[in-house]
Design goal:
The complex is a heterodimer.
Chain A: H1 2-26, H2 30-55, H3 64-81, H4 88-107, H5 112-130, E1 142-143, H6 160-182, H7 184-194, H8 196-201, H9 206-232, E2 234-235, H10 237-241, H11 243-256, H12 263-282, H13 286-304, H14 308-316
Antiparallel strand pairs in A: 1-2
Helix pairs in contact in A: 2-6, 2-9, 2-11, 2-12, 3-4, 3-9, 4-9, 6-7, 7-9, 11-12, 11-13, 12-13
Chain B: H1 2-31, H2 38-55, H3 60-86, H4 91-113, E1 128-131, E2 134-137, H5 138-160, H6 162-172, H7 174-179, H8 184-207, H9 216-231, H10 236-257, H11 261-276
Antiparallel strand pairs in B: 1-2
Helix pairs in contact in B: 1-5, 1-8, 1-9, 1-10, 2-3, 2-4, 2-8, 2-9, 3-8, 5-6, 5-8, 6-8, 9-10, 9-11, 10-11
The chains are: A mainly alpha, B mainly alpha.
Chain lengths: 328, 285
Amino acid sequence: MKEATAPKIAWGWVALAAIFLAYPLVFQSAFFRDIGVLLLLAAISASAWNIVGGYAGQVSVGHGMFFGVGAYVPLMAFTHLGWPPLLGVPIAIVVVLILSVIVGMPTFRLQGHYFSMATLAVAELIRLLVGTWDFAGAAIGLSGPAIPRGWWDLTFTSELPYYYIFLGVLATLLLVTWQVQRSRFGYYMRAVKAGERAARSLGVPVRRTKLYALMLSAAFTSVAGSLYSIKTGFVDPESGFGILVSVQMLIIAALGGAGTLIGPLIGAIILIPLQTATNTWFGGGGSGLTYILYGGIIVLLARFEPGGLVELWNTYAPRRWRSGSHAP
Amino acid sequence: MLLLQVIVGGLLLGAIYALFSSGLTLIWGMMNFINFAHGEFVMLGMYAALLAAIWLGGGPAVFGFASLLALFVLGVVIYFSLIRHVVRGPMLAQILSTFGLALLLRYTAFWLFSANVVSMPETVLSGNLNVGGILVSVPQLIAGVIAAALTVAMHLLLTRTTIGSKLLAVAEDRNAAMLMGIRPDRMQALAWGLSAGSAGIAGALMAMSYPWSPSVGETFGLTAFVVVTFGGFGSVPGAMYAGLIIGLIQALSAYYLGPIYKDVVVYALFVALLWLRPQGLMGKA
């Protein structure tokens, strides 16, 4: 069974990779390339969220805290020490690992709701603190290098280098996730998601599994934040830690299919162009409408198909098109 | 003297926290379900009060009751259209349902009412009371006292009446309650109505003395989480004490550290609680 389906899935991924590689060369206008970059960034964040929220079933509604730390630390390193922002990336990862222990250690011995509440509260706590912290630029935020001092500042005028850097990060993340989901740890995560008590009785180290999943997820979310701030050259409390940062990861992963490799990609491919379209159609006032739409989509997903589009596909698509396993 | 005034103000606000948090703890205790949209219910209660005051006129009794009724109905509708279908589903669906609802309500409110800060029109109640040198605003005093009375009433409703026994029976064991001739669906819908209604009237009471905008819902929602966690899972008396304590802590941190830090201190307290005493003040160990 596995041998029969494996080549088919691989071809789908090869096709997808080819499309992503060719996209900016086919669509050369800055507008389309910008959408491509946004889409990749959203896919990276959502895939990172997916590790703990999808595979391990621990729903974080405050992943913006990891994104924000990832976004702030490189610009802090630049502003205060004059370092290339890139050097801030590993520091940010260390910080989010500590942060995930602070959030995860106490809540993972409790029921799942506590983790969700804690993520929301801590994200909001950090957003408020950063908004008053002068070292982090307070409410105004921080800026990156205006004029590149060298390639290592990663300040390009073209979108193209960013696109391929982001694509590389996304590919790495998906490869890591794919490896993880096939490993013993991946089975642990799914066992925890399916039922903690049963998992524990079979000898799965439940708390440790949840914590490691969070740490892995947080590290990649932090990288996504760093990519964002290095590319934009700017971050403020709202774009780093705002609730909508967290919401976007959650909705993209859940729309595509939480706990699947392809899900966050599908979610990003659908939602980012949609979001760009509503913002273009409705102008600045469209952002409010976008969030109403987000809320509506999340409610409908929860009500009718928590498995997302992948699950919908697996239910209704003709049998021969379906993927062999539930986690393609 | 000023400190004493801050303390009284904190306790009066804390009584309102206790009221809406008792609504959250009711759902939490009864269905083991966290409502991420609870703060939005409070926010909607504030707007319902405003609209009632404009359209119907009358005093706090009118708009208070209007908010209660409007939110009770909303709670029941949300139960039947959404919650009933996700409550036994996967964790992801449970959390997404009310989290999405919170966003939907919050941004719809932004869209309908704009982001501007509003307050009640020429407040029917105004003025200050001078109690031995401490100035207490009359609307705050009345709101606090009513909120405390309603929280106690909620507790009595749950512990001393047949309806309360039925609610607790469903919470205890859904199937056994069903065998006793109780319809769990109706009881849970009632619980959602009571929960949202308490948030609604708490919003109306708060609207009497504090200006607001659609973004207050998020703050109140988080405050309710802290109060409920502090007071212990499903305990209305716990929510009562914890609400008063949180109101006090908030007032004192605003006084000593500055108004921006009042929420920071409360959220930090939440994380500390999860580390040290997740079962809460009155919860079983």
